[in-house]
Design a protein that fits this description.
Acyl-CoA thioesterase; disordered N terminus; Thiol Ester Dehydrase, Chain A; 178 residues; HotDog_dom_sf; 4 helices; 7 strands; alpha+beta; single chain
């Protein structure tokens, strides 16, 4: 996706390509998740909390929850705009909201898909949950879109628990690696 800066929330723009669609030219439902992940990971990178920074600090990110709401379909050659915002940061987890919109030639936008991706910080070597490095936690808690909340007992406990079935998105591998 191509980054654009300006007033309002950070956005990413991308044209729907043939590879994104099914035989009828409609974007396949699975592509929305990939596009949302790209928007979210790019947003974290811009905040100084991307996969490379986690790696430098001895941690990785694993997706532990994904929520997606489909509102309208996108079709071949639509211009998609993606936006992301950090919603919650706890001791071991980060939840980021994402929305994909269609932008018309007149600049109007229609929401297509929205949802959240929750990541847990994990050890690249063992896959065990670890605390989010303090510098990253503080950086993300300082982002304007962050709604302050107290760490839950479950998130604090997750600092020592294995994250079951979590696919990593970083150097440790996984289907979502970019």
């Amino acid at each position: 996706m191509t980054r654009t800066d300006g007033a309002g929330p950070p956005t990413e723009r991308r044209r729907v390509e043939h590879v994104d669609t099914d035989a009828s030219g409609v974007v396949h439902f699975s592509r929305y998740v990939s596009l949302m992940e790209t928007v979210v990971l790019d947003h974290l990178e811009e905040q100084g909390a991307g996969l490379a920074r986690f790696g430098e600090l001895g941690a990785d990110l694993a997706v532990v929850d994904l929520q997606v709401r489909y509102s309208r379909p996108a079709v071949y050659r639509d211009l998609l705009v993606g936006e992301a915002a950090v919603e919650h940061v706890s001791g071991a987890r980060i939840r980021v909201a994402a929305v994909l919109l269609r932008e018309a030639a007149d600049g109007s936008r229609t929401e297509l898909t929205s949802g959240t991706i929750t990541f847990a910080a994990v050890s690249p070597a063992t896959g065990a949950a670890v605390p989010i490095p303090p510098t990253i936690r503080q950086t993300l808690r300082g982002t304007p879109a962050h709604a302050p909340r107290h760490d839950s007992a479950a998130d604090t406990a997750a600092g020592t628990a294995r994250v079951p079935g979590a696919g990593t998105t970083g150097a440790a591998g996984g289907a979502a690696a970019r």
